[in-house]
Amino acid sequence: MKAITILGNNSGRNAGDNAILGNLLDDFALQRSDIHFKIPTLNTNFIRTAFGRHRIQPIGLLPWNLALKNLGWPLYRAMVDTQMVLIVDNILFDRKFYNPLINNLSSISLFAPFCRKKNIPIILYNASIGPIDRQVGSRALQRVLDASPLVITRDESTKHLIERLNLRHPEIKIHADCALNTQVPSPARMDEIIRKEGLFTNPKGTIGLNVNSYIDDFNEKGSMNREKFCRIIADTADSLIEKLGVDILFTVSQIMDMKITKECVQYSRHRDRIRIVGNCDYTYQELTGLLSELEIHAGLRTHTLIFCAAVTTPMININAYPKSAGFLRTIGMGDWTITFDDLSMENLTAMMMRSWEKRENLRNHMRPIVDNEKKKARDSVGYVSDILDSL
User: Fold this and answer.
1) C-alpha distances in Å from residue 48, one per residue of 29, 40, 348
2) Which of 101, 284, 319, 355 qualifies as a cystine partner to 19, CB 3.0-4.6 A?
């Protein structure tokens, strides 16, 4: 057996992160059966339960494992006692660089020279990088790239960032996010969930919304507090209910967002027409199945947009992250972004009404582009396999 270590956000709390890991493992399984995956995580039980059908070894990152999250003996052993390291998602940034509870780049860059010395390749796998705003972050990223024979990124902005920082780097390939290949569960399972939650009973349809708890981080002008944001979202939901006669479904893809989601709903005048589903109860595949039943969706979390793309549900990006806008441009939906500082009930409702009117055309427009992006995400396995087999 060959050993590969996967470094990402693998706590189980975020459906997007779970989808990245799950689809990576599934994509490899389609081509190979000779790989044992080591997965550093804060939640070994979740990894075993969710992905135990694959050959995996969860590696605990808790204090009794001699770790302070991603800093400590477990991460070091995971990176040097393997044949390859894959870095996924967007875990290489220099925000709060010296805080190992938040920052991964500092720890990974500390151990990357040991990988290089032992000829253990580090490969960014359908990943993103950034932001890198300080010299300490640039130097740390260079140490990682010095151990890398290949960078496979899911966006153009990562390539541009590496080039702008004038870093030495290997070949850079631009592929796609693993989560695009998420598969919807069986119709029987989806019917079970829909009945349990009382969803999609309105013949006029259901529109989706998704919110995020990091309000202050996204509001550059400082003109929006939490209450104002929640009222805008609630008023938008009410406006759509009144104008179109639809129901509203809030999808929570990160457990920490459930609180603000419920706050938004409390401001609505039509709470009886609103439902909430989240990854505290359902898998990323099941959430994607529910998103496939929507007419349109608007969200802040990038992976709710990616899940919608996977099932060609037209989406609007409430632009909390640069990677979200970049993703929509990639799938030909670049015009369907509203900046956070322009967010208002009137602006968001107007954009969602336009999306509603064009929803079938948008589905047809997206479908061939998304199919190509799905293939690109899976093609990454072949490039990694070639390097692995050459070791």
Assistant:
1) 16, 12, 41
2) 284
The H or E element that residue 278 is part of is strand 274-278
In this structure, what token pair is assigned to residue 32? 């190979």
Helix 226-244 to helix 345-357 angle (10° resolution) is: 40
User: Residue 48 CB: number of other CB atoms within 10 A?
Assistant: 14
Residue 164 has pLDDT above 90, yes or no: yes
Cβ(330)–Cβ(279) under 8 Å? no
Beta-sheet pairing, 71-72 with 67-68: antiparallel
Q: What global pTM score does this model have? A: 0.95
204: CB partners within 8 A, 6+ apart: 244, 245, 246, 247
- Give CA angle at 97 (118, 384), nearest 5°: 40
Cβ-Cβ contacts under 8 Å for 230 (sequence gap 6 or more): 211, 260, 263, 264, 266, 267
Candidates 173, 136, 7; CA nearest to 75 is 7
Tell me if residue 83 falls in helix, strand or coil: coil
* Torsional sign, CA 169, 171, 177, 181: negative
Q: CB–CB of 208/296 below 8 Å?
A: yes
For residues 2 and 34, is the Cβ–Cβ distance under 8 A?
A: yes
